[in-house]
Amino acid sequence: MKQVIITILALAAALLPHHAPGADRPNVLMIAIDDQNDWIGCLGGHPQAKTPNIDALAKRGTVFTNAHCQSPLCNPSRTSLMLSRRPGATGIYGLAPWFRDVPALADSVTLPQWFAKHGNHYTATAGKIYHGRYGRKNTPKHKEWDEAGPGASGKPFPPKKLVNTPQPHKLVDWGTFPHKDEDKGDYIVADWAVDRLGNHHELTENGKRPFFMAVGFFLPHVPCYATQKWMDMHPLEGLKLPEVIANDRADTPRFSWNLHWKLPEPRLKFLKEAGEWENLTRSYLACTTFVDAQVGRVLKALEESGHADNTIIVLWSDHGWHIGEKEITGKNTLWDDGTRVPLIFAGQGVTKGQVCRKPAELLDIYPTLVELTGLPANEAVEGHSLVPQLKDAGADRPWPAITTHNHDNHGVRTENWRYIRYADGSEELYNMKEDPNEWHNLLALDTGAPDPTARRKADALAKWLPKENVPPAPKSAARILTYDKETKETIWEGKPITPGDPIPEL
Ligand SMILES: [Ca+2]
Ligand SMILES: [Ca+2]
């Protein structure tokens, strides 16, 4: 009898498919969009946003409408996301350095590395996941990816800049000129993803491994160039400009200007005087719709591969972008226009058709994907898994979303409030329910003694300010601002700003 049972068990084992460890785990498809603010249909940031593919993804999964980056700038935001560590813990605040070049961070285990190590995932990437060329090459010590496709590119460029912006910068430009969608960097990145998803046996080493694919789109990052087709979908006639009020900055601390002291992205004043506000609004919307179409191509390829049911999708942007709000354009701010981002999860383990209004942070993506995939938790991460909200959008979440820009400047965002504290101690408080555009700083000093209720609210929110605030990492550069509490000296890009310096009107 015993012999018979053993024979039956052996036969049964022989009939089971022979998978390598982890081959049954879900795949991950991560889609990143650069400088994409909340001008996405399902986020409602602009009434004329046209993003049918991203909206359809949101319907297939859970969209977070109160998600915020950990830093409103590419390199620090992406480093934070891929390591799940706050800028105040890494000291990565500027466009440089690459974290592997910082001795204290060099051996950090990134999200895809965790999947390769603990899930046996085949990791592949194209476009912009890390900033610039960072992390695209493996070194003998650090294998970043199994495979890297085409890098990020804003190409093709027109023969010369289309808009004469102040402090001219090659990238700070927008509009349309004769070129082909097929030649655009993001189209080429989507081509690569479509091709790789269609070659499932290569992407999974003949079904032996699950895949972790990270695809990063460059638009609507400047230059916001779109072909005529996408511009025509956003006609100038009837175009709605962002809502602003005059002198919105009058009640914000002087220090708030320091964070974008002399950036190449122009002020609203320039846009108005040059008659370019409409053109930039339209170009940004057109680029967003173009990127949405590329997202659609990638998602269609996943569907056609037959592996959509066994794949977790996450879509995010690294930070927001102002288009005139708070009198500026660009990023580098601690208001919702600078920090609020799309964040959508769909696929295996994610409840369909949910809208979650709880605060969420981009550094939550790491532990969320790890938990969804059933991998062991990485104790080094600072984020909190969003799996409870992916199951039930109403699930309790006590943590606010915190954004840090440069050393010791922080924004704290809850469901109904935003509190900001700058390195010099100056503050802002907004009631986001009653004042969603953050027009009325409840801690403004020129309105006399602040309302005691506002003071109490601010003090309660200040308890969430990060305790760890390391100074900028060695070789920090590009967009670096420091403030010396003793001497009260502010240094921007290596040059001191004195309190008497007039705010640059660019
Ligand atoms: Ca960016
Ligand atoms: Ca104001």
Which features does this protein show?
binds calcium ion; eight-stranded mixed sheet; globular; Alkaline Phosphatase, subunit A; 21 strands; 16% strand; 506 residues
Specify the CATH class: Alpha Beta
CATH homologous superfamily assignment: Alkaline Phosphatase, subunit A
Describe the largest sheet.
8 strands, mixed
- Give the overall form: globular
Give the percentage of residues in beta strands.
Answer: 15-25%
Radius of gyration: 23 Å
Q: What's the CATH architecture name? A: 3-Layer(aba) Sandwich
Q: What is the CA-CA span between the terminal residues?
A: 89 Å
Please tally the β strands and state the result. Answer: 21
**Structural class of the secondary elements?**
alpha/beta
Helix content: 25-40%
Multimerization state = single chain
Which fold name is given in CATH as the topology? Alkaline Phosphatase, subunit A
| Uncertain residue segments | none
Strands of the largest sheet, in order across it? 5-4-7-1-9-12-2-13
Q: Tally the structural domains.
A: 1
- Give every kind of bound small molecule, once each: calcium ion
Average pLDDT works out at 95
Separate helix tally = 15
Describe this structure in words.
Helices cover 27% and strands 16% of the residues. Helix 6 (185-198) runs parallel beside helix 11 (277-305). The mean pLDDT is 95. The termini are far apart. The strands form six sheets. An eight-stranded mixed sheet has the order 5-4-7-1-9-12-2-13, with helices on both faces. The chain has a four-stranded antiparallel sheet with strand order 15-16-17-18, with helices on one face. Strands 19-20-21 form a three-stranded antiparallel sheet, with no helix packed on it. With 506 residues, the protein is an alpha/beta fold. It has one domain: Alkaline Phosphatase, subunit A (3-Layer(aba) Sandwich), CATH 3.40.720. The longest helix is centred in the middle third of the chain and has 29 residues, at 277-305. The chain has helices at 2-15, 52-60, 74-83, 87-90, 111-118, 185-198, 200-203, 228-232, 255-258, 268-273, 277-305, 336-339, 365-373, 387-391, 452-462; strands at 27-33, 61-64, 67-68, 122-127, 147-148, 174-175, 211-217, 224-225, 311-317, 322-323, 329-330, 343-347, 354-356, 360-361, 401-404, 410-413, 417-421, 427-431, 481-484, 489-492, 495-497. Bound molecules: calcium ion (2 copies).
